[in-house]
Records
---
Amino acid sequence: MKILNLDFQRLSHDSFRIAGSKVVYTDPFRLKEQDKADIILLSHEHFDHLNREDLEKVCTPETKIFASPLCADGLKGVIAAGISYLTPGGKAAADSVEIEAVPAYNVNKFREPGKAFHPQGEPRLGFVLLMNGTRVYYAGDTDFIPEMKSIHCDIALLPVSGTYVMTPEEAAEAVGALKPKIAVPMHYGAIVGADEDARKFKSLVKTCQVEIL
């Protein structure tokens, strides 16, 4: 689907194929087809974000990978043009595409008291991608966090399923802070969450267009 001037496909869970001057994949997972990615963004090491079988369906010797340092063990032996590890605030570029790593963590989602699924202070990431003049925020696995108030984007890809990430209500609050032109729900329909979460998110957002892919 064309969103602004970029082509988007939501493939599964948090996996998107974003095509402009380059072909970018986010957290490849449960991919049905082979493809060639110019850039792969890996937010963290969990199996539904760093999956070697799916990664290798789109990674070629010409692909550049930008990842959390937590992905280092899982990327051992991967053949790519380069693997760059970023921490929040880190910036990089692949030809005309600019990439910035931003924080992603939980504030109220815990596997047990005091132990978050995605703890603050560990380098799990979201990304801000600038391609063809359009800024895309890929939030990764996160709650609504204060850092979102300083993120500028045209398109926001936001998790909505709760349990490990924002609920639809929290994601709608995040839209209010981010002020994108278009929001796209993700992180549902695979590990946790359902289409209803995406529809509920859309019904709650009043300040921008919402596209369910």
---
Amino acid sequence: MSIIVWPYDLLPANAIAPNPSAFSRGGGRSLGGIERKTRTDRGFWKITLTNIPVFSTAQRRTWSAIRTSLAGAAGLIAVPVWSYGTAPYVSGEREPSVLTPHDDDTPFDDDTLYEQGAILITMASAVAIGATVVQLRIVEAAPNLVGIRFSYQHALYETGPALNIVGDVWTVPVFPMIRAPIPAGAELECDMPTCLVHLADDNAMDLEFNVEELSRASVSFIEAVDYWSDLAVSS
């Protein structure tokens, strides 16, 4: 199944709500009225893009094309989860992407340069499916990797408090559990992480145009955990 990427530049949401949904079960209340919760899974992401402008012809056609391509909640799409407020920029403030040539100092054939994120963090050691703790290496980032988000191949993660710090390597827990293997040295997407998702329901992209033709819309998604599960079984 093909994966499309939400066109953030054309359909920019005014706000995004990427929230972890823990998966726990209770065994009923005790005599004192307290219900003990047991975590049975690391959980998954619920993401909502709100107040998206759908004004121009290009925006409306793109919205319709995405809706048609997804054909309901079974379709796959990677949505951007911008995290400017928590991203570990070296300056402490949002920084633009950097335009650089290739390693041999040459541009692309059309003389354009390669766009590289302002943040560079790599996986310090290989990590397997199901891991809940990772080691991240700072290459170009602020020296604090607590509470940041990153993605790898459209799998979105959020770090917890530091468990250990040795030089530029931070050992941190992550939510959710690792969806697919990440090799040592892999570059992680921190400037504009993405999350592979399904529509929250078949009608999540229904759209109503008003008389003034100045429509805005919101759409909710749920992480495509089934995709990662199927990938793990087939690998």
---
Amino acid sequence: MSEIQRLRQIAITTNDVPALAAFYREVVGLTPLFDAGPNLSFLEVGGVRLMITRPSAPELDHAASVFYYSVADLETAHAAIKARGAREERPPGLTAKMPDHELWTSFFRDPDGNLFALMSEKR
């Protein structure tokens, strides 16, 4: 059994922290928590902190992993984020049929080119 209880924080690196933090705040709609100077910003999503920071080493200066944000209504959330200026990578569509639900996803790119997704499980 693992001692790990839950995922608490994830990080995205960028060379323009204020601009990327504004995108996730204003376009994606995440809740701002606090800034720690011009190069460190924290937002909240479902009890997990999203830390936006400058890369601390050259090997960390690359695109982030793909983050999947859970939404209740995929079509509505997708349309709202697209209307606020996010670059659509793939519109909402069925990803997988499970025995008890369907998994639907859509994809966007942030201003740094990082891919992120919205996902909804439809019963």
